[in-house]
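ZP: hey, is the flavin-adenine dinucleotide complex queued? I don't see it on the tracker
AM: it wasn't, my bad. submitting now with these inputs:
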Amino acid sequence: MNLDFDLTPEQVQTRETVKRFAQKEIAPHVLEYNREGCLPLDIVAKMKEMGLIGGVIPPEYGGAGIDHVSWVISIEEISRVCSSLAVVVGGPSSLIGQGILRFGTEQQKQKYLATMARGESMGAAGITEPNTGTDVANIQTTAVRKGDEYILNGSKMFITNGGICDWAIVFATMDKSLRHKGITAFIIERGMPGFSSRSIAGKLAWQPLDLGELIFEDCRVPRENLVGEEMRGFKIVMSCLDMGRLFVAARALGLAQGCLDASLNYSKERTVFGQPIASYQLIQKMIADMAVGVEMGRLLLYQVARLRDKGAQRTTKYSSMAKLFNTELAMKAATDAVQIHGAYGFTSEYHVERYFREAKGLQIVEGTTQIHTILQAAYALGLRSDD
Ligand SMILES: Cc1cc2nc3c(=O)[nH]c(=O)nc-3n(C[C@H](O)[C@H](O)[C@H](O)COP(=O)(O)OP(=O)(O)OC[C@H]3O[C@@H](n4cnc5c(N)ncnc54)[C@H](O)[C@@H]3O)c2cc1C
């Protein structure tokens, strides 16, 4: 008997369909395209056909309109095989699209969100800067209103899709002295005067994905590209992050499950001192930790997704908790999976070498392990509340 998580028949079907797709269409090619550092556009096209890009975005805005539980299951199953391609499923509904979905105008939703959800445009989200990441309120990129335009100056660093995106939601300050209260959200588009970007070369993992810098030099943004209201952008950042952290939690859970899958197979096949290594208790301890961890991580993640399906829009505490738990789980699972594989696990012929590098990235993106630990302590001590 398995924990069934009270999934609906549709959610069970989603898992089966996405799992089969990942095994059949992604797994045979994943080592090769990761080694080459290319996004497999033919696979992305199939994901688009399956509606995987549209996620929770409603059909009227080009999305698939699936529930949040189905969405995290889809991310989990893709990430179990390739956490780079999981970004194609998770990004549009979360960090990139959530702000426009909740706070954008009808025109912005049709022009940017809907085209991204249909796989026709590539978006990005720019919060981090060269001199500020964790301390979001310290954003230094400035926005000044001038007639019917805003003039942006500054840059955004380490932005997924940054070097190749068609547009991005970016956050700038209209008054640095107000810290988070001065933050305002805008959509910038390639071709706007004063906007340029570059891809960042050389990184630990996720070679198929672009990581870039967005540069604003007297960048002129029309007033219609303001998202929400002036000086109300911090709320938009947080709503993007609440979903973004859920996405990263699902991505991490899938990666941890991938580590368990690989470790089970390898430990039964590899013989040392005349016995499969799975028979040794020190190996079993690592496998038991992974098996318990993925069940716990899944319980937490699905409950947070369910909260959102019940209508909760602010899930900061539990999105952070799920992100923290699952990314720490992924790092430990990947470390142990490499250990179980011995020298083979050290080579790029085996998936666990890649999982190990990717797990480190998961501990950094959408808030580091440290900031989520600090947040959880603050909630526990009653210093912070979502109410
Ligand atoms: C692959 C990748 C993709 C990314 N994609 C995006 C994206 O699409 N959009 C975007 O906006 N950003 C993106 N980022 C940036 C990411 O969100 C930031 O890297 C992250 O928020 C941390 O910021 P930082 O790197 O500036 O670290 P810093 O804030 O400089 O922190 C450095 C170290 O200090 C620690 N630290 C900070 N404050 C404290 C404290 N109070 N107590 C203890 N320790 C502390 C941190 O945990 C960290 O270990 C991406 C990053 C990566 C690696």
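AM: back. Strands lie at 125-126, 142-146, 149-160, 167-173, 183-189, 195-199, 211-222, 226-227, 271-272, 275-276.
ZP: great, adding it to the tracker
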